[in-house]
Amino acid sequence: MPKKIDSAVRDRAVRLVREHRSEYPSLTAASAAVARQIGVGHESVRRWVLQADIDDGTRDGVTTVEGAEIKKLRAENRCLREDVAILRAATSFFVGELDPRNH
Fold first, then answer.
1. Given 28, 34, 42, 46, which is the most exposed site by the fewest CB atoms within 10 A?
2. How far apart (Å, rounded) are the C-alpha atoms in residues 69 and 54?
3. Rounded to whole angstroms, how far apart are CA atoms 92 and 17?
């Protein structure tokens, strides 16, 4: 299970990378430097910056809010499919019970 990192740490990392991005040859290098300072993985920092760019509208992609909504809708869809399967099974059971040929 991945560890939950405080949002203040995440925001600080994104801010530091954005402030010092011009001092490094790439986003990956800037992310690695900030990650060493903060004590988290460099790939995590790089992904946070990319997601922050998407959320700000400077990069194309699915925003955090949209991603959460998609996740919620998929879970709801899964529950509804399970409900339909249960209702179908119950319907076929009761149809069989009510059929006079089975008695």
1. 28
2. 16
3. 60
Give dist(CA 16, CA 34) in Å, integer: 7
Model's pTM, two decimal places?
0.73
As a whole number of angstroms, the distance between CA 79 and CA 46 comes to 34
pLDDT digits (tens, 9 = 90+) for 21-67: 999 999 999 999 999 999 999 999 999 999 999 999 999 999 999 99
Q: Which residues of 55-94 are buried (b: 16+ CB within 10 A; e: fewer)?
A: beeeeeeeeeeeeeeeeeeeeeeeeeeeeeeeeeeeeeee
- Cα dist from 9 to 16, 29, 98, whole Å: 10, 19, 63
Tokens of 47: 């992904």
Please provide the DSSP assignment of 18-67 as one string.
HHHGGGSSSHHHHHHHHHHHHTS-HHHHHHHHHHHHHHHTSS-S--HHHH
